[in-house]
Amino acid sequence: MNPIVLFDGVCNFCDASVRFIIKNDPKGTFRFASLQSDIGQKLLKERNVPSDIDSIILIEGDKAYYKSTAALRIARHLQGFWKLAYGFLIVPAPIRNLAYDFIASNRYKWFGKKESCMIPSPDVRERFLS
């Protein structure tokens, strides 16, 4: 099973992040679903993700990773120097998540919000779960 990235479907920053992952994942490793979708909610429940997690979530097998851990685990699969970001896992999660939480708590203010989830282009549509 391919790793699945769950993202906030109405967040402009999250939408840009998904597009960035797609652009830097030429092997098509990742699948995507919005947190708001039925499949997203199902995956969260199956992995017992706390309901207060407002973050990008990476599902790998039966495990769920979120916040900076999810971002760094995603980076290790991307092309180019982005793989090197995975090394930041040596920094304790509470320290890494300070920066992550600051950006996440301001994402709507800085980047805006959409009325609905993105509609993927035909060339990547099969990577989105519905």
TrEMBL record:
<dbReference type="InterPro" id="IPR052927">
    <property type="entry name" value="DCC_oxidoreductase"/>
</dbReference>
<dbReference type="Pfam" id="PF04134">
    <property type="entry name" value="DCC1-like"/>
</dbReference>
<dbReference type="InterPro" id="IPR007263">
    <property type="entry name" value="DCC1-like"/>
</dbReference>
<protein>
    <submittedName>
        <fullName>Thiol-disulfide oxidoreductase DCC family protein</fullName>
    </submittedName>
</protein>
<dbReference type="GO" id="GO:0015035">
    <property type="term" value="F:protein-disulfide reductase activity"/>
</dbReference>
